[in-house]
Amino acid sequence: MKCLVILMFCHAISAETHFLKIYFTGSSGFRNVPVFEIGLKLNDVEGAFCNNKIVDLKMDWLKKIFSDDSKLFEFIESTCFITNPAFCRHMIAELMEKFNQSEGIHTFQRIGGCELNMETKEFTGFLKYGYDGEDFLEFDLNGLKWIALRKEALFLKQLWEMDTQDLIFNRDMLTNLCYKGLNYSLVDGYLFRKDYPSVSLLQKTPSSPVRCHATGFYPKSFLMFWRKDGEEIHEGVDPGDVLNNEDNTFQYRVDLDISSIPYMNWARYDCVFQFTGAEDKILIKLDKEVIKTNRDHSSEKRIIIIAVISAVISIIIIIIALAFIAYKKRNVSERQLIPDAENMPLRNGLENQELPLVKRLKLSAESLFTISFLSKMKGLVILIMFCHATSAVKHVLKIYLTGSTGLTSIPAFETVAEVDDIQIAYCSKKIIEVKQDWLHKKLNNDPQLFEFVKWGCFVSNPAFFKRTIDALLKKLKQRKGIHTFQGIGGCELNMETREVTGFLKYGYDGEDFIELDLTGLKWIPLRQKAVFLQQSWDYFIEYIHYHIYLLTSKCHEILSDTLDAGHGTLLRTDYPSVSLLQKTPSSPVRCHATGFYPKRFLMFWRKDGEEIHEGVDPGDILNNEDNTFQYRVDLDISSIPPEDWARYDCVFQFTGAEDKILIKLDKEVIKTNRSEDESSQRKIIIIAVISAMISIIITALAFTAFKKRNDRPVTPESETIPLRN
Length: 725
Fold this sequence. Notes:
Layout: E1 17-28, E2 36-42, E3 45-51, E4 55-57, H1 60-68, H2 70-98, E5 106-117, E6 123-131, E7 134-140, E8 145-148, H3 154-161, H4 164-188, E9 198-202, E10 210-217, E11 222-228, E12 231-232, E13 237-239, E14 243-244, E15 250-256, E16 269-275, E17 282-285, E18 291-292, H5 294-337, H6 354-384, E19 394-405, E20 413-419, E21 422-428, E22 432-434, H7 437-445, H8 447-475, E23 483-494, E24 500-508, E25 511-517, E26 522-525, H9 531-539, H10 541-565, H11 567-570, E27 577-581, E28 589-596, E29 601-607, E30 610-611, E31 616-618, E32 622-623, E33 629-635, E34 648-654, E35 661-664, E36 670-671, H12 674-711
Parallel strand pairs: 9-18, 27-36
Antiparallel strand pairs: 1-2, 1-5, 2-3, 3-4, 5-6, 6-7, 7-8, 9-10, 10-15, 11-12, 11-16, 13-15, 14-15, 16-17, 19-20, 19-23, 20-21, 21-22, 23-24, 24-25, 25-26, 27-28, 28-33, 29-30, 29-34, 31-33, 32-33, 34-35
Helix pairs in contact: 1-2, 5-6
């Protein structure tokens, strides 16, 4: 292995901070979400969740606490099911009455907890409330008082400060109780754990940047960078964002542009992963041998196959040629043995059939070879070529529109455009952001289209959404508060049939509200409250026809132009880098694919060529920053004997395609940091064996030398040798 991984466990002293946060949310006016929810987090990792119906513990040590202490679990159930929901309902009702709010969606939220500095042992508690998305009240732990963050909260501050026992209870909860809970998690070791990542080098094409990708690490405090000659570099380096994995670990990537780096200088570069405050590092050298890319193996295999085929063809041609020469020589020899053959009588003109017979023999041999060769080549071509099965490929343009009132931190109107789940543009009443270079070029070259987009973003849509929200507030007798009116519209294009299907739906305050029936030329109310809007909109039949034009002809035109302009992005097929990962020998084996596009794919485990589901845990599709996707599917190997591993493989396949990426369940290809420990053990065993062999050899040589010395003939004593003058 040219991949150098160095793990030196010499941690530097650093100030670590751990925190416990509890999120409380009560709401009214929602039908599809619980009226009350609590979430507990430890260092950004979800530990528990409850609402007015369930308690869901996410961490094993929390389950152990509650299983050992039934009274504590009863207290949590009472808090989740009774006291906090009742407090929430009471506060929302009181605030709505105070602010003259009768209906609509309203939220009352709280965030509280504590933070511990491990170096100074300093402990800090915090508690804050919010109403309808705005900060409302904050607790002063030192002054034992409430701070009104809005003048509307002054009445609540005065009311709560009258109860001194409640102030003391809050202080005790944010200090003693919170400290005990946080300290227990530290003693349990969960927050102190350190999961080292699997680090790989990935590359799509020889001209693409080399991606250093780390996944499966915890905690989130780390450094990851490229170096040249041991010094960190920034030029040509593109860092990414920290992404969450499903198992409460994280992943990160940092790309290096190698276009200006000569190949002979690659050895001077390496990628470094290091936890903050630690001296141990994971290093991986910039080396062609360790870069994972599907092109390497496939191209090498194709070269080998072509070379083998060429060699086989050459050998067969040589054999045929030699056989033909031997046949010719044999005929000549036979003629020489019968000299009077020229004068022999001819029968039925058979002398003219000798040459055609040779030609037929040669033709038959060549035909047989050709048929055999083409037959073999057919199977080879099927393996090499990407022969896609006939399938209906569909492309979708979606426009998300959101109008709101009562929110000061976000624009009153926003639009997001997506094609095939890739965001291509964003706009509000003030700005237009084009997310793709090809769309930017398209808008520059088509002023009429750009004017149409500006008119929709800046004029027509904001006015329509404001007018509709005002109408809804008036009709539903809602005066103040946060309200949203949202729309999703667009079209779907079937590339095989060229059929275009339009769609348009609106929602109000988080609920489906009204939908357009393009076939029936009418609006369908999805809530009783939307009937008045349906009646009003159905009256303007021209308005319906205009929407149908936008959702069919115009949308088809824009989508087709978009696919044409962005074909390199939207119609591309990026094959993934597929790896097998494993944390410990007893952990499931993760089949991880990243960097693929489009999102239409299959990925599964097989046994003996058949897809399996038992012991398989599929994940969710995650977005990468470069408009590609990643996915994982885990296989529980605890019940699979090692001798059966060869029967299992992981398959990645795009939907509607026959070509597959296969990776065998093989210990040699599984990436895991434990390999360093195993290699150390192997080195110790090898050193021990070599030492033993050296000892045996030295002993044997010493014994041989001793034997030779004893077997040497005895020299006569000098006194008996006669002297000569």
